[in-house]
Amino acid sequence: MSDGTPLPPLAHSASANTLVGSAYVKLRHDIIHGKLPPGSRLRVEHLKDDYGVGAGTLREALALLVSDALVVAHGQRGFHVTPISLQDFRDITENRVLLETEALRQSIALGDDDWESAVLAAFHRLGKAEQRLASDPEARFEEWEQRNREFHRELIRACPSRWMHHFLGILYQQAERYRRLTVTRKPIARDLHDEHQGILDATLARDADRACALLASHIRLTYDAVARLPPELFTPSA
After folding, report:
1. Which CATH number fits domain 11-81: 3.40.190.10, 3.40.50.300, 1.10.10.10, 3.40.50.9100?
2. Which residues make beta-bridge pairs with 73?
3. What is the pTM of this model?
């Protein structure tokens, strides 16, 4: 059980109400959406005008993105958007499967009626977002992404390991650029609602083996979809 010692915050929790937080949120959005492509150089002297902040503020925002692993710092060469690759995403995927299925197994063993209610509510909100996503994947991705994150988070909420939650938060965040490519480009046919429904049903039935198997398959299908994307998407531009 947790000893109450706070874990280091994930950078994406930065407040958008500060200058640094606002610049961070805008930069992160442009990286996730590909406006700032993988591998591209982030020139502070150019970007500070684009984002309406000073050079110092922009560097602080970029430092947060470095801690997110969405940006890399190359010493005298400055900042670059982290490249994406199949090797990287396989590593993210397999570690997420390892941790998230164990967290789900523990949640199923320990979760109470309130936990079940929270999972059901998150699934309902996700279902609504999935319907809207189908009509306009580009415009509705961020709403869907938030609801999808909430559903996966509620599934494992009853797991008592704070470190497992922390590491899974990092892995889920690292997968976002890849997940967006599969949701908006649809390289393979899949029914996300049906996949989530199966995980939900097995979870509420307290069938841990089936729930974990379905969750693992669900996570790995996103890797399979990424593997079908055009290879030039994974070529860094710098």
Report:
1. 1.10.10.10
2. 79
3. 0.85
Q: Can you give the pLDDT of all 238 residues of the chain as single tens digits?
A: 445 555 555 555 555 678 999 999 999 989 988 899 999 999 999 999 999 999 999 999 999 999 888 999 987 778 999 999 999 999 999 999 999 999 999 999 999 999 999 999 999 999 999 999 999 998 999 999 999 999 999 999 999 999 999 999 989 988 999 999 999 999 999 999 999 999 999 999 999 999 999 999 999 999 999 999 998 888 554 4
